Amino acid sequence: MRFSALKILTEGLTGNRGWGAHWRDPEPAEDYDIIIIGGGGHGLATAYYLAKEHGLKKIAVLEKGYIGSGNIGRNTTIVRANYFLPGNSEFYSHSLKLWEGLKTDLNYNVMHSQRGQIGLFHSDGQRDAAIRRANSIRNQGDDAELLSVDQLRKMLPYLDYDQGRFPIYGGLLQRRAGTARHDAVAWGYARGADQRGVDLIQNCEVTGIDIKGGVVQGVQTSRGAIRAKKVGIVVAGRSSQVAAMAGMRLPIESHVLQAFVTEGLKPCIDHVISFGMGHFYISQSDKGGLVFGGDLDMYASYAARGNLPMVEHVAEAGMTLMPMIGKARMLRSWGGIMDMTPDGSPIIDKTHIEGLYLNAGWCYGGFKAVPASGNCFAHLMATGTAHAAAQGFRLDRFRTGRGLMDEEGTGAQHNLH
Q1: How does pLDDT run across 310-354, given as a tens digit for each residue?
Q2: What CATH code would you report for 5-77+182-251+343-416?
Q3: Is 279 exposed, middle or buried (0-12, 13-18, 19+ CB in 10 A)?
Q4: Helices in 101-156 by DSSP H: which ranges?
Q5: pTM for the full model?
Q6: Helices 370-383/41-54 angle, 10° precision
Q7: Strands across the sheet with 330-340, in order?
Q8: Angle formed by the axes of helices 88-100 and 124-140, nearest 10°
Q9: CATH class, 114-177+253-340 region
Q10: Buried b / exposed e along 137-162 (16+ C-beta atoms within 10 A)
C-alpha cells in the first residue's frame, strides 16, 4: 500500500474504511538470520536498513509490548546536527541528511519540520563556546549561524532579555534543525520493514539469550525459543538488563527524563529554543501544544515516570526564559528511560560474544539519531565492520580510556549529563 494524495482524499470522503493494516502480525518462526531485540525507533530502523540496503530477508524484531511503546513515543521530537566533537559531529550530520529524505524513502509522512533550532548563550564564556561549536559544525559541512541580541529580539520577542540573573547575549542557530512526529517515525519504519519481509513480533518479551562456546545461538522469549545467527540488543534504558542475560555488565545507568506538554495554543513559537543556563528546551507541536523538557531526574530508575521536584525545576526554567509560558495550562507529562554512558555518547559495536551486537547509550541524543543509528547498526550487523559515521562509538573505550567523547564537557559522572 502506497500513500498518495488521491488515496488520502478518497478515504477522507468515504469514512476511512478502506485502509488496510500497515504491517502484519505474524507468529514467530523457529529461526531467523538476524533478531533485533527492541521494537522502538532504533530497532525498527535497523531492521528496515538491513532489508533495504543489505538485501537480508530472515529478520525479526521482538518487542515486549507494542510497536512504538517505549522511548520513541516518549520524547520531545527534536532533530538537530549541532554536535561539537569529532565522532559525534559526523554521525549526527549523517543522521540529519537521512532525516531530510526520510519521508520520500519511507513513503510515509514523518512530519519532519526544519523550523530551526536556537541555542541561547548568557555569558562571554558561553559565547566563545558557541563560536567554537559553530566553526566545528560548519567544518563538518552543516549550517550554523551566530545571532546577535537584536536579531533574537526580532525572531523571539517573547523572551525575557532584561533579567539580571541570566541575560541573553545571543544565540546559535541551525536552520536545518527542527522536529518530527515521533509516532510517525516508528510507524513509517515499521511499515517499511514489514513490506520488505521483516517479521514484527509484538508482545514477545526476551527472557534469555542462548550462547554456546562463545557464540550466540538465539533467544528465549515469552513465546518460546527462537534461534538466530545474529542478535542485536537495541533496548535503550533496558540495555543493562538485557545484556545481563548474556553475562555482560555495561557502562550504563538508566535515568528518567521527563517531558511536558501544554494545552493547544495558537502558533506562537516558530523554532526549537534551548536555554543555555537552565537546560530547558521548547517547541510547539502541530496540534498547538508547547512541548518542553529539562534535566534528568537525578537518580537511577527503570520507572517511566518522574518526580514532582523536577517538574517544578523545569517549570521554573521555562518561566525564567519566557514568562508568557505561565499563562498556559500543563496538560500532561511523561518519562522516558534514558540509557546514560559515562561520556554522554552512544555505543554501536560488536560484543565479545560472536554474533551478539549492541546499540545503546543514547543519553539525550536518541530521537534525532534514529535514522543514522539504524543505518549504521545495520551496516555493522550485515558486514561486520563499523560504518564510517559511527567508528568512534566503540564499547571498549570505557575500558581503555581511549577515544572517550565527552560532548558536554561534564566528566564521567552520569548525573551531570
Answers
A1: 999 999 999 999 999 999 999 999 999 999 999 999 999 999 999
A2: 3.50.50.60
A3: middle
A4: 102-106, 124-140, 149-155
A5: 0.94
A6: 50
A7: 145-147, 170-174, 117-121, 272-275, 280-284, 289-300, 253-264, 330-340
A8: 60
A9: alpha beta
A10: beebebbbeebeeeebeebbeebeee
